[in-house]
Design brief:
By secondary structure, the chain is of the alpha/beta class. It has a single domain, classed as Rossmann fold (3-Layer(aba) Sandwich). Helix content is 20%, strand content 26%. It has a seven-stranded mixed sheet. Helix 1 packs across helix 2. The radius of gyration is 14 Å and the shape is globular. The termini are close together. It binds adenosine-5'-diphosphate and magnesium ion.
Length: 144
C-alpha cells in the first residue's frame, strides 16, 4: 500500500504490532531513508515501548522492554553472515522477543525462513512510500 507521510508508515507498523507474538521475526528492506526505522518505531509503539526508537546504525542491536520485548537490529555496518554469528547476534533472533531487522540482506543465510518481509520503496512524490508486506516460509497471514 502507499503512504504519503511518515505518520502513516508509523501507523501501519502499530497496526502490524497488534498481531505479533513472541518469536516473530520481521525483515525490513529498503534504501537508506526509505522509512524502515519509522516503521520500526510504529511497531515499538504498538508493543508498548515508550522510549526513543532510533536507527541503531552504530550499535547493531537495541533491546526494548514492551508488552513483548523488542529486539531492533540494524545490520547496515555488518560485514557479512560470519560477523553476525561472531558478534553473538543470532542469540537475539526469535526467542521470547519480537525481532525487527533492518538490512537483513547484509547477512544472507542468518535470517530464519519463516519471517514477515516488509519492503519499503520510494514513491514518485517526496514523502510517498510503497510498502509491501509478505509472509515467508509459513509465517501466518497478517491483516493490513
Ligand atoms: P531508514 O531506516 O529506512 O534508513 P528512516 O526511517 O530513518 O529510514 O527515515 C525515513 C525518513 O523519511 C524520515 O526522515 C521520515 O520522516 C521521512 N519520510 C517521509 N515520508 C515518509 C513516509 N511516507 N514513510 C516513512 N518515512 C517518511
Ligand atoms: Mg534505519
Amino acid at each position: 500500500m502507499n503512504t504519503v507521510n511518515a505518520g502513516e508508515t508509523e501507523r501501519i507498523g502499530m497496526h502490524i504490532a497488534a498481531q505479533l507474538r513472541a518469536g516473530d521475526v520481521l525483515l525490513l528492506s529498503g534504501d537508506l531513508g526509505a522509512g524502515k526505522t519509522v516503521f520500526a518505531r510504529g511497531v515499538a509503539r504498538g508493543l508498548g515501548v515508550s522510549g526513543p526508537v532510533a536507527s541503531p546504525t552504530f550499535v547493531l542491536l537495541h533491546c526494548h522492554a514492551g508488552l513483548i520485548p523488542l529486539h531492533h537490529f540494524d545490520l547496515y555496518r555488518l560485514s557479512g553472515t560470519d560477523a553476525f554469528y561472531e558478534a553473538g547476534l543470532s542469540d537475539y533472533l526469535g526467542g521470547d522477543a519480537v525481532s525487527l531487522v533492518e538490512w537483513p540482506e547484509r547477512c544472507p543465510g542468518a535470517m530464519p525462513e519463516c519471517c514477515l518481509e516488509i519492503r519499503i520503496r520510494y514513491g514518485p512524490e517526496d514523502d510517498e512510500r510503497r510498502i509491501e508486506i509478505r509472509p515467508r516460509g509459513g509465517f501466518r497471514e497478517v491483516r493490513i
